[in-house]
């Protein structure tokens, strides 16, 4: 099979979406498929300044450059399927039309909630927000949900309204991949067709690290970007509520780095490591007793949680979105009330005290990985999706939307 991947990376650096793209690329190549990547990257210069913002706004709704880039790549490579991971902001929904005109079926993975929420997080003022779910973008404009700017929010609201109105997503995308049942329900609530949404979770190759034989330190670990929606400030506050016999390891970087480090200046049992290579990161996760995910938003499916499950490291997660289901309602960890510092502090204290239950939680974590998130299982799901949309495209065609 010939597969073309399309992805717009963000200027903030390598993230979970980028990791998924690369893993699927390698997975498909290893199974003998021909894969071509069409990658663009959003730089700071693309989204700063009035003229740049105006240009990006226009591209967000319809990008001639994106259309031509994808059309030319398809003509040259002649793929059986186009798999889009992210088209925002430089490529735009114009790429769907390019593929449809050349009769190539489109699959898109929904790594976030961008198609139903201006900031992609379903979060506002550090709290979960579903005001726009149901195809109403007015609240996003009122609250300036993207970058706290009305000018920046308008093109996203316009993209949503225009392309839903034209039926772009309904007519030009053969299948959306959602990562969890929770995300599927959210998109159905917004009006997406249930038969268009297929669940295929993230995955990693088996790291082959025995969770029982691995030497564990008395350490909790956080891995992720240092941004408000990740809730790292909540974790720090909860950590400081009581004297800790454990150590907290923080791996990651981001705009909140300086502020968050200042919050821990009096803590000798908190260590900051910045970003680490993936192999070293897995070793660190495997050497800790618990992963902590203090997120404030409906995390779609954090890669770090899949990595923790793979090495048998239980997780402490909020009761938001799909998170409780991902750890089997606490079988592979502990659950706290999302956004509640006291509840998180209680979960940390319980995890420190329950040594007798750790082995059971670790074994459950590893079992969840083997049952749901291996490369072999993911490959089978991905092939079923590709083969299905190719068969459908060969038997039924829809007229493309006009190019303007």
Explain what this protein looks like in three dimensions:
The chain is built from 16 helices and 14 strands. The protein is of the alpha/beta class and 404 residues long. The chain folds into 2 domains: 2-203 and 375-395, Glycogen Phosphorylase B (Rossmann fold, 3-Layer(aba) Sandwich), CATH 3.40.50.2000; 219-372, Rossmann fold (3-Layer(aba) Sandwich), CATH 3.40.50.2000. A 6-stranded parallel beta sheet has the order 2-1-3-4-7-8, sandwiched between helices. Strands 11-10-9-12-13-14 form a 6-stranded parallel beta sheet, with helices on both faces. A two-stranded antiparallel ribbon has the order 5-6. The radius of gyration is 22 Å and the shape is globular. Mean pLDDT is 91; it is low at 44-54 and 397-404.
Structural class: alpha/beta
**Shape call:** globular
Low-confidence stretches: 44-54, 397-404
Helix content range: 40-55%
The helix/strand series, from N terminus to C terminus, equals: EHEHHEHEEEHHHEHEEHEHEHEHEHEHHH
* Gross CATH architecture of the largest domain: 3-Layer(aba) Sandwich
Subunit arrangement of the protein? single chain
Distance between the termini: 32 Å
* CATH topology assignment of the largest domain: Rossmann fold
The CATH homologous superfamily of the largest domain is termed: Glycogen Phosphorylase B
């Amino acid at each position: 099979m010939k597969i073309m991947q399309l992805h717009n990376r963000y200027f903030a650096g390598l993230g979970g979406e980028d990791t998924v793209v690369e893993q699927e690329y390698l997975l498909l190549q290893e199974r003998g498929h021909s894969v071509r990547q069409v990658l663009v990257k959003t730089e700071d210069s693309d989204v700063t300044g009035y003229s740049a913002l105006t240009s990006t706004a226009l591209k967000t709704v319809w990008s001639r450059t994106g259309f031509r880039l994808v059309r030319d790549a398809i003509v040259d490579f002649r793929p059986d399927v186009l798999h889009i991971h992210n088209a925002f902001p430089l490529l735009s929904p114009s790429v769907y039309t390019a593929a449809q005109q050349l009769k190539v079926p489109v699959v898109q993975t929904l790594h976030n909630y961008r198609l139903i929420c201006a900031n992609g997080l379903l979060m506002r003022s550090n709290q979960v927000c579903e005001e726009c779910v149901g195809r109403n973008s007015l609240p996003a404009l009122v609250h300036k949900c993207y970058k706290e700017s009305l000018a920046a929010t308008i093109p996203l609201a316009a993209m949503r309204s225009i392309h839903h109105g034209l039926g772009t997503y309904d007519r030009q995308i053969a299948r959306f991949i959602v990562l969890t049942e929770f995300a599927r329900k959210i998109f159905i609530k917004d009006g997406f067709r249930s038969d268009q949404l297929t669940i295929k979770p993230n995955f990693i190759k088996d790291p082959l690290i025995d969770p029982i034989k691995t030497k564990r330190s008395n350490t909790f670990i956080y891995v992720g970007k240092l941004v408000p929606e990740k809730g790292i400030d909540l974790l720090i506050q909860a950590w400081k509520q009581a004297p800790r016999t454990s150590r907290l390891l923080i791996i990651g970087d981001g705009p909140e780095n300086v502020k968050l480090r200042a919050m821990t200046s009096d803590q000798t049992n908190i260590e900051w490591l910045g970003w680490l290579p993936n192999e070293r990161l897995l070793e660190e996760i495997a050497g800790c007793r618990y992963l902590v995910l203090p997120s404030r938003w409906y995390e779609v499916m954090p890669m770090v949680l899949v990595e923790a499950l793979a090495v048998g490291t239980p997780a402490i997660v909020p009761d938001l979105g799909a998170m409780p289901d991902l750890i089997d309602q606490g079988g592979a960890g502990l659950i706290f009330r999302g956004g509640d510092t006291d509840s998180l502090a209680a979960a940390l204290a319980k995890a420190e005290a329950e040594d007798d239950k750790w082995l059971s939680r670790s074994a459950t974590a590893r079992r969840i990985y083997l049952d749901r998130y291996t490369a072999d299982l993911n490959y089978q799901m991905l092939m079923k999706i590709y083969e299905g949309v190719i068969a459908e495209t060969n038997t039924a065609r829809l007229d493309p939307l006009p190019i303007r």
